[in-house]
Task: inverse folding
């Protein structure tokens, strides 16, 4: 049935092309959304994974950087250092701030760097902020706002000179920027306070044991292992974002299925008498279904093949015009999409197959 | 209960059958009727036809339009199920076959030739013939070779790669004939095979049909208005209002 399927598609080149493009667009949309989701998650986690700590200690009830507030007195560091199994304690101070760039209000997540344990993921230009009045911004932010080394931006009424550009700090809605801890305390008006304590453990100490000791020493704090804290931050965004993406992905798959189904249905209607002839001369129904399914698969797979480079192009285009667009492309996305395309094709072949089943072979005698 | 199609009836011809009724007839119709619709609007297209056809006969079904010729051929060809009566072809009662078994039976035991050729427009002449062989599970190379042999035999060697639209009516009907004979079925059913042909093409097709009977002992059933076929037929069956008279 390969012969007939191939020939039928070649006779309707225009339709085959349109179906392929339709599926390719659906594949592109779904891959783009998958890339967006995974890119977002990866970006959300990148900086937090980079922070050198074993435990995050915050105010009771706080669980992440973006949705809950944690404020602790800096003196808490002394208390933590006395706990058995704690090797090192540093401060984390960071919050979302508005800055002014050429008269426009922009958002930054400003972090005060303490002992270089919570600095940028990777420096790509310049140096880290080590003095008063210096700031390191993310490359995405720099590109988006047209900023460069040596430029100044006004944060909380204070002019800061850009001394470095880093990467790995793009969380889509805003980007991380880094100043010294002292600078951050002044900008936030939080002298003597921190948001979280970053705790490094002594070698061969169990995380659970130290966590229990910290909570026992101060019932007013919440303690999170690093991975747990990263997961909290990622899931809070992901839990809200993912269902929306699922809906859009489902729509993409539905569009692809409908495109293939409509194309094949139209072809089947036009070829109805020929299917009748095939039935009359003895072609069993299943071979005709196979023909339709093969045609559907051909449309689907060609669309998939075209859709993959299209999604790369669309991502590159999106990142050109929207630098903060967080896209990640993995082979597993393409493989998953391949499975979906096969599924779409099989589902799309159902309607024309049912149509074929209803064709009466006597039609062959009717001219 | 449906019975399994005997292997002999689905295997490559020449076929034999060891099933009832024990007879030398290739085709046996017993009190066959076909009614379309129901109630007052019911149309009795075939009405109580009893008929036998032996191996190697060339039977012409003659009659005006609407006389039931095509319905009768459809019943013999297993494309329609009778409302009542039984149809035996090659010793197999067609009503007892499942749709899949009936398809296989038609593929291997019956060749069809239609008035308007009914070639698949997307396939070349060779592919149209090859397709039947491929449906029967022949390997592509063997199917191609057999298709080329058949088309060459019908004088179409130079038209192998032409699409039906690029062939004359006579050529298309010869391709259709080659397709019908691809699996060497013992029975050939032709509905108005000359109806869409000019005079010389029609004569060529009639001659080919007759040669199949004379040289290969095939059984040929033709439904036609064409009086030129009458002298070549072994038997003429007149159809009128669903009845037949020999």
Result:
């Amino acid at each position: 049935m390969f012969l007939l399927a191939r020939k039928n598609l070649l006779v309707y080149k225009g339709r085959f092309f349109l179906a392929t493009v339709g599926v390719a667009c659906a594949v592109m949309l779904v891959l783009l959304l998958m890339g967006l989701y995974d890119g977002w998650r990866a970006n959300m986690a990148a900086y937090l994974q980079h922070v050198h700590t074993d435990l995050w200690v915050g105010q009771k009830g706080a669980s992440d950087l973006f949705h809950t507030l944690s404020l602790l007195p800096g003196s808490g560091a002394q208390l933590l250092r006395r706990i058995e199994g704690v090797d090192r304690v540093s401060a984390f101070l960071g919050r979302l701030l508005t800055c002014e760039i050429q008269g426009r209000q922009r958002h930054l997540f400003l972090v005060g760097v303490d002992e270089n344990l919570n600095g940028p993921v990777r420096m790509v230009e310049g140096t880290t902020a080590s003095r008063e009045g210096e700031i390191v911004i993310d490359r995405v932010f720099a590109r988006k706002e047209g900023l460069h080394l040596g430029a100044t931006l006004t944060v909380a009424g204070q002019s800061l000179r850009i001394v470095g550009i880093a990467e790995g700090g793009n969380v889509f809605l805003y980007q991380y920027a880094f100043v010294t801890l002292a600078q951050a305390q002044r900008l936030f008006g939080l002298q003597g306070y921190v948001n979280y304590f970053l705790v490094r453990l002594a070698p061969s100490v169990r995380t659970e044991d130290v966590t229990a000791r910290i909570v026992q020493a101060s019932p007013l704090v919440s303690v999170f292992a690093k991975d747990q804290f990263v997961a909290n931050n990622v899931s809070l965004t992901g839990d809200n974002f993912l269902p929306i993406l699922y809906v859009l992905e489902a729509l993409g798959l539905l569009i692809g299925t409908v495109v293939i189904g409509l194309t094949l249905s139209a072809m089947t209607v036009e070829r109805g008498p020929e299917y009748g002839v095939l039935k009359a001369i003895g072609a069993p129904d299943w071979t005709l279904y196979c023909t339709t399914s093969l045609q559907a698969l051909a449309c689907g797979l060609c669309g998939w093949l075209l859709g993959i480079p299209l999604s790369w192009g669309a991502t590159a285009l999106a990142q050109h015009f929207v630098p903060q667009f967080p896209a990640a492309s993995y082979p597993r996305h393409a493989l998953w999409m391949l499975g979906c395309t096969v599924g779409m094709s099989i589902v799309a072949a159902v309607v024309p197959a049912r149509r074929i089943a209803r064709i009466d072979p006597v039609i062959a005698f009717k001219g | 209960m449906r019975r399994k199609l005997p292997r002999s009836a689905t295997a490559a011809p020449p076929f034999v059958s060891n099933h009832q009724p024990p007879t030398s007839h290739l085709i046996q119709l017993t009190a066959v009727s076909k009614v379309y619709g129901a109630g007052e609007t019911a149309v009795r297209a075939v009405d109580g036809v009893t008929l036998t056809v032996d191996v190697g006969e060339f039977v012409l079904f003659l009659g005006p339009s609407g006389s039931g010729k095509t319905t009768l051929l459809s019943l013999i060809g297993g494309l329609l199920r009778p409302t009542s009566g039984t149809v035996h072809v090659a010793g197999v009662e067609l009503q007892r076959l499942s749709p899949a078994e009936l398809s296989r039976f038609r593929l291997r035991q019956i060749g069809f030739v239609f008035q308007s050729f009914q070639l698949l427009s997307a396939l070349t002449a060779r592919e149209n013939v090859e397709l039947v062989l491929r449906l029967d599970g022949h390997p592509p190379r063997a199917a191609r070779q057999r298709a080329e042999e058949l088309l060459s035999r019908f004088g179409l060697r130079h038209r192998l790669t032409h699409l039906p639209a690029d062939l004359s009516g006579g050529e298309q009907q010869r391709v259709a004939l080659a397709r019908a004979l691809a699996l060497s079925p013992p029975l050939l059913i032709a509905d108005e095979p000359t109806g869409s042909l000019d005079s010389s093409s029609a004569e060529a097709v009639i001659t080919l049909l007759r040669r199949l009977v004379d040289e290969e002992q095939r059984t040929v059933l033709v439904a036609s208005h064409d009086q030129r076929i009458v002298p070549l037929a072994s038997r003429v069956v007149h159809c009128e209002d669903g009845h037949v008279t020999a």
User: Anything to note?
Assistant: Chain A is about 55% helix and 20% strand. The first strand of chain A starts at residue 55 and ends at 59.
